[in-house]
Amino acid sequence: MATDAILNLLKNVGKKPLLVFFKNSRNIFEKDELGLEIAQIALPATLALAADPIASLIDTAFIGHIGPVELAAVGVSIAVFNQVSRIMIFPLVSVTTSFVAEEDTIGNLNAEAKEDENLEEGFAVNKEMEELIPLVEPSCKTSSISPIYTQRAKTEHERRHIPSASVAMVIGTVLGLIQALFLILAAKPILNYMGVNSDSPMIKPAQQYLTLRSLGAPSLLLSLAMQGIFRGFKDTKTPLYATTVGNLANVVLDPIFMFVFRMGVSGAAIAHVISQYLISLILLWKLIENIDLLPPSFKDLQFDRFLKNGFLLMVRVIAVTFCVTLAASLAARQGSTTMAAFQICLQIWLATSLLADGLAVSAQTILASAFVKKDYEKARTTASRVLQLGFFLGLVPSVTIIFGLPYASRLFTTEVSVLQLIGVTIPFIAVTQPINALAFIFDGINYGASDYAYSTYSMVVVAVISILCLFILSSTHGYFGIWIALSIYMSLRTFTGFLRVGTGTGPWSFLRV
Question: What does the domain layout of the chain look like in residue ranges?
Answer without folding.
Answer: 2-116+155-512
